[in-house]
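Re: that chain you flagged

S.,

Sorry for the slow reply, it's been a week of failed gels. I finally had a moment to sit down with the sequence you sent. For the record, here it is as I used it:
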Amino acid sequence: MSDKKSIRFRCTATGDSMITRRLPERGEYDGFAEVRDFIMQGDFRFGNLETTVHNFESCGGARSGGSWLCSPPGVLDDLRNFGMNILSTANNHALDYSYDGLEKTLQYIEKAGFPFSGTGRNLSDASKPAYIDTQSGRYALIGCTTSFNPENMAGMQTGNLPGRPGVNGINVNKKYLLPREDLKQIKRIADALGINCKDNIIRGEGYLPPLKESEQPFGALMFEEGEKAEIISTVSPVDMKRITDAIAEARFMADYVVVAMHTHELHGTAKETVDPASIAFCRACVDAGADAVIGTGPHLLRPMEIYNGKPIFYCLGDFITQLETIQRAPDGMFAKQKLNGNERLDVLFNTRSDNGKKGLSYDPVMYESVIPYWEVEDGKLVKMIFMPIEENFALPRSRGGWPKKDTQSGIMERFAQMCKPWGVNIVIENGIGVVQL
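Prediction finished late last night. Pasting the structure tokens below so you have them in one place:
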């Protein structure tokens, strides 16, 4: 076996691909080639597929990841035309069309020949690493998400029953702390509303654990006494062990191991702020043997850090943003806007956006992203550069949403500024961000 340390690993990564349209005829648009060529520098070329893929052969789920996203199977060819060669499928939209929609998506991805990780026909399938063999070595990808509806979590297969299809979910446990006087106030309000009556009855029947003296429930929330008001978020130890076990297996099987984390966890007053649970999770993955962690989810840029010599991208933003060009929508998507389901799609989207005054599709920040390219040799990060991209926000929805290199919006400057507090110094050369290593 060749010495792993003699290999130079080359990686590129893109953010969320909410792709609902095909590339233009001949597969190009103004700016396409420059983006594709940058991505193609890597041997490992990552993307997060944030949509279901089928021909509307399945019913919409009772709940979705926000919109009910569905894309024609040909978009997989378009992602390959951009250069992607491995996908994460773990995100809050994976079961927008319920279990059958996930099954159809898995079939189309498998038919397209893409290695992927993060969803599967049971929990073991969803959490297994995906591998791609390249000239620079074998790469592994482990996809997971902290953002999912509870019924979308994949279930373990047993000797009695098949497992449940779904995502490789990472549960984030939240502890809500309040000072004693505030806790008493919560109890007075709960008693006045009778909001805990049902749980109190069930607890009396022995189906819920007895309350500790320091605990005070308030409906679905459980508050505890603390010195100050705060929320403490921690990753489920069971889910964390499943990820570290997958990292250990991938470490044995591959030369370079990447974890992809999709999360919508928020902290503080700005979406750009990284939450403590995500920081702890990503660093734990590196401690367990991951070579890089790629974050996606909140639809805008978050900072990156280099932790123990390994890159952690807390969110790369969106790579393709096409939320308002889905071809059909289930009744649930109309019902959320108090419509009956028989209206036209333009009525649906204009109602949701208040005629273009609100929503992700009308916020230019959500169309700004970066694509990192990095090289590792002898276990050391030796090169990292970023291409800033903008997803054609100014174009009509019929042509917008595709990425091109940004030259005017100051995306790279903004990203460099947010990375400084994390110890990452980025200088800009000819419009490309260069990390000073």
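What I noticed first: The longest strand covers residues 8-18.

Talk soon,
D.
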